[in-house]
Amino acid sequence: MNELTSIVAIQPSIRAAHYHAYSGRIKEKNRFGYCFAFHFIDKGTGFVQINGRSYPLKKGTLVFIPPGLQHSFHISETQPISSYDMYCDFFTKKATIQHLYFDPLHDFEPGLLTEIKPSMELDQLTGITQLSRYPELIQTFIQIVRMNRLDIQFKAEIVNSLLYSWILQLINLSLSDNIPDYRIQKIIDLMEQYPGMNPPYEQWLELCQLKKSQFYSMFKKMTGLTPKECFFRIKMQRAYATIHESERSITSIAEDLGFSSIHYFSQQFSKYFGLPPSELRKQAKNILHH
């Protein structure tokens, strides 16, 4: 039995990447890949069959197909599928752009087949994943496809690094479902942008369109913190950076961060960082003068 390979050991590279409009051609019906394939459905509906199993397709669906598996795409006549397609080597780069074959008995060339190592994480990815709730993953995937077309300095290094990070995020999603949800991310962004505001809890719920229990559990799952703990951490980190990097008075920094009392601010800062804000200011000045 072959030893399982950890997903962190992959060194992905792209053979081919493009935007493709499916039209029902015969070559869309009986395909085999020389390498690993990702298809992100940009529009349309239909289904894909992978080794005889059918998966529904719609906008926001990601399809992952390992090499050598028979698969076929079937499109709706009224809403044909278009997708961003990416064909990758995961372990050893092959100097070829050929990524598909159609008749195993006649046109299969063994030298074009990618290196394959057993991996539990990759096995779990086979089939479809819905990415509609994860716009960051969608945007990065599209960016990788687009950048692969360009002729720029360090293209391979940039694209392959982005692809490696994207695959790990995708695996993380399949394992734990804690990739940022856009509704929760929206609130965290607001906390970062307006750390001095202390809006009522109901305002966050209204922006997210979530019930209080849903919002709380999703926030905690995504960040490991309650909304209150997360907001407090953002305030403290902003306070530290501002005290350390500016000459502004500690009183004005505390007011800007929504603290009505300088005493309470100093107390909370000392508890969080282990030193009072005045001591941090003193240290910052000493560093500056040396």
- Can you list the strand order of the major beta sheet? 1-8-3-6-10
CATH class of the largest domain: Mainly Beta
Succession of helices and strands: EEEEEEEEEHEHHHHHHHHH
- What is the CA-based Rg, rounded? 25 Å
State mean pLDDT (0 to 100 scale): 89
CATH architecture of the largest domain: Sandwich
* Structural domains: how many: 2
Structure description:
The chain is of the alpha+beta class and about 290 residues long. The chain contains 10 helices and 10 strands. It has helices at about 120-125, 135-150, 155-175, 180-195, 200-210, 210-225, 225-245, 250-255, 260-275, 275-290, and strands at about 15-20, 30-35, 35-45, 45-50, 55, 60-65, 70-75, 80-90, 100, 125-130. Strand 4 and strand 5 form a beta hairpin. The model has no long low-confidence stretch (mean pLDDT about 90).
